[in-house]
Design a protein that fits this description.
Layout: H1 3-41, H2 49-56, H3 59-72, E1 84-85, E2 92-93, H4 98-117, H5 128-152, H6 158-161
Antiparallel strand pairs: 1-2
Helix pairs in contact: 1-3, 1-4, 3-4, 3-5, 4-5
Length: 190
């Protein structure tokens, strides 16, 4: 993969994470409205088909988050990636990385847990579909953590860990050919 392809994929991960963040914001706003309605009418239980349809909507942000995680797995870390500007050039958008994706995962957990438990009666047990949403979220976060740990331990292919050289014009190499050993386990001087 070239740097341009890697940058485009990181941008796609950022857009997916933005959609997940907006879904979480919408969920939180809806919870506030549900709470106010519950206070006004003295509480409410499951509303039948509406409650089931609402709880099934919890799959949407989890699936989008899982897609962002899967898309980010083969991408190398790019600490100096430039920020993007919005279409009108007024808003600066920071680049997305796996750390921010992990943070969005924990925020998504809070929203998803509240989402699958909302519109449920006090004595109504949690159904299997609601539990599967939380398991799917946990699987996506576990996959992301595994990718972070394996990358840190350098147990992944080099193309997944190190950026390719810049796509600039070729420069003649005048240095002698010297083989540099892998410095992974070398002691530090000092």
């Amino acid at each position: 993969m070239t740097r341009r392809q890697i940058s485009d994929r990181w941008d796609m991960v950022g857009k997916l994470a933005f959609v997940v963040a907006m879904c979480s914001c919408a969920e939180m706003l809806i919870f506030v409205i549900q709470g106010l309605i519950g206070l006004a009418i003295g509480g409410f239980g499951s509303t039948g088909v509406v409650g089931v349809a609402w709880r099934n909507l919890a799959w949407l942000p989890v699936v989008i988050y899982a897609a962002a995680v899967v898309l980010s797995i083969p991408l190398p870390r790019w600490p100096g990636r430039e920020t993007r500007w919005s279409g009108n050039g007024k808003v600066r958008m920071p680049p997305m990385g796996r750390g921010m994706l992990l943070l969005f995962g924990w925020i998504l957990f809070l929203g998803t847990a509240l989402h699958v438990l909302s519109l449920r009666g006090q004595d109504e047990p949690m159904d299997d579909a609601s539990g599967y949403v939380i398991v799917a979220w946990a699987g996506a976060v576990a996959l992301l953590l595994l990718r972070i740990v394996l990358g840190t331990l350098r147990l992944l292919p080099r193309s997944w860990r190190v950026l390719p050289p810049d796509d600039g014009p070729p420069v003649a190499d005048t240095r002698p050919d010297v083989v540099i050993p892998d410095q992974r386990f070398a002691p530090k001087d000092g």
